[in-house]
Amino acid sequence: MRERRNLKIRxxxxxxxxxxxxxxxxxRYDVTGFVRNVGFDAxxxxxxxxxxxxxxxxxxxxxxxxxxxxxxxVRSTAVSPRGDEGFSVTPSIR
Length: 94
What we know:
The chain is of the alpha+beta class. It has two helices and five strands, in the order βαββαββ. It has helices spanning 18-29, 51-63; strands at residues 3-12, 32-38, 42-49, 70-79, 87-89.
């Protein structure tokens, strides 16, 4: 069974290598999906995999953000699995 979570993280999340940190963490946890900047103070992550792994991945991201980042708000929503391969840093949405 696979699950997919969409996270929207607000705060100081740009210019601090947050997307690269998420990409590296995703490779360690073997989750698929993407990360991208949204606007000027938000980041969107979609992560898919085994439920326990996805939850551990999210916990790691939130517990250990990059130096200089500050998470002010997190919204997490379950979305339908898509069967992605790999994890990518996608273009920003402004």
